[in-house]
Amino acid sequence: MAAPNNEAIQVSFPLPRSRDTKIHMRLTVQSKAIALFLTTVSSEDSSHPASMGAFVYSIPDKYDPNQPLSTTIYSAESRLEFATRIAKILAKKTNMPVYVGNSISLANTGLGGTVEEELEAFKQVVAIALDKLQPFIQFAT
Predict the structure, then answer these.
(1) Exposure pattern of 110-141 as b/e (b: 16+ CB <10 Å)?
(2) What's the farthest any 2 CA atoms get from each other in the chain?
């Protein structure tokens, strides 16, 4: 069990079905909220800054714990749904408010970002985030 701190957890892992693209995750756990920022970088465009993407806030709903509430702070339509789903899952699992910034691009996946590729990337991000959050989830409960 670990108490929340202000140090960011930074992880980089391969984008599923992509040869040279990685997902970069920055996870910060505060005493009252979690912040998660996601982006992708390929070897060919590593010198270009990523777009801001979408920024979403989600909180657990005390009246319906299975349906966290969320609001969009900054909208980039192509990235919004992915960010919202991740924010809601993390809010539900951790029972804490969660901020998610997402600028992941699936353009470099094998088929250019099909539903299956997006789902595979989504599952990988959630699994890694929850793994890194496990000590804090146990501390909160």
Answers:
(1) eeebeeebbebbbebbeebbeebbeebbeeee
(2) 47
Contact 73, 59 (CB under 8 A): no
User: How distant is the alpha carbon of residue 24 from its chain centre?
Assistant: 10
SS3 state of residue 21: strand
Burial of 16 (0-12, 13-18, 19+ CB in 10 A): buried
Q: Which amino acid is at 106?
A: L
Task: For residue 33, count other CB atoms closer than 10 A to its CB.
Answer: 16
In the chain, the DSSP E strands lie at 8-14, 21-29, 34-42, 54-59, 69-74, 98-103
The model's pLDDT over 45-98, given as tens digits with 9 standing for 90+, comes to: 656 666 788 999 999 999 998 999 999 999 988 889 999 999 999 999 999 999
What are 22's two structure tokens? 């990685």
Task: State the pTM of this model.
Answer: 0.87
**Dihedral in degrees, nearest 10, Cα atoms 64, 68, 71, 73:** 150
